Each structure stands twice: as structure tokens, then as C-alpha cells.
Amino acid sequence: MKFIKSTLPETETIECVIAFHWTHTLLAWLYLLVFGWVIIGIFLFISMYLETWTTERALTSRRLITKRGFIRRHTEEISFNRVEEVNLKQTILQRILGSGDIRITGTGAGEILLKNIDDPLQVQKKINELRQYQ
Question: Domains (ranges, CATH) in the chain?
Fold first, then answer.
């Protein structure tokens, strides 16, 4: 959360950190074990680990912030007063394991997709809770 903390004004606080589910790391290792003898498996493993290490996602008291990238940085933000929909998508396996994807749609063309997050129901609940106070 180093980047997100450094960009927040003093009046804004981090309410919830959104983490990748442990299955994201497991899938990276499976790619390495199954396809490791081919360059593709090594590439997928490295790219998934880099994604985990260089992604920050958090709910603050005013907005949702996502940051991806190490050398090249890409940030997305959406204020809670601009959020129209918070959609949760879970497969049967994701429901059993407690992971899922959340798509946040804002007014206009704004949209943020949070893939393979840990405890998506809690994150969805927290977003809706913070939306009510905006």
C-alpha cells in the first residue's frame, strides 16, 4: 500500500485493502508445474507473480483506488458518489473457495474490474456501505 498511502490527502483514510485470493498464487504455481517444460509456463508464472507484487487495491473513505505496474504505472480511481453498480461474479468453485470478481461501474464510461479477490462479499458490502455516506 506504499503508493496509495503516499497519494492520499490527510483527510482521507484507507478503509479496506483488497487482496488477491490465495488461488491466484496457486494457479501461477500450477502453470509452472504443468507447462514449465515449455517457455509459456515460465512466462505465465512470472507474469502472475509480477501482477501480485505490483498491484495495490484499496477502498478509502472517499473512493476506490487501483494501481498496477512497477516501472510503468497505471492507476484507476472512482469516487463513491459516482458509483452506479457493484456487480459480483462467482463460479461454483469460487463460492466454495471464497474468491470472486467484482465489477464497479461508474457514471459515464468508468468501469473497474477487480479479479480474483479474497472475500468478495465483504468487499461488495463495504463498497455499498461507503457509497451510502457519500
Answer: 2-20+55-132 (2.30.29.30)
Coil vs helix vs strand at 50 = helix
Q: What stretches in the chain show pLDDT beneath 50?
A: none
Closest CA to 118 of 93, 99, 91: 99
Task: Give pLDDT tens digits for 30-67.
Answer: 999 998 888 898 999 999 999 999 999 999 999 999 99
What count of residues does the chain have? 134
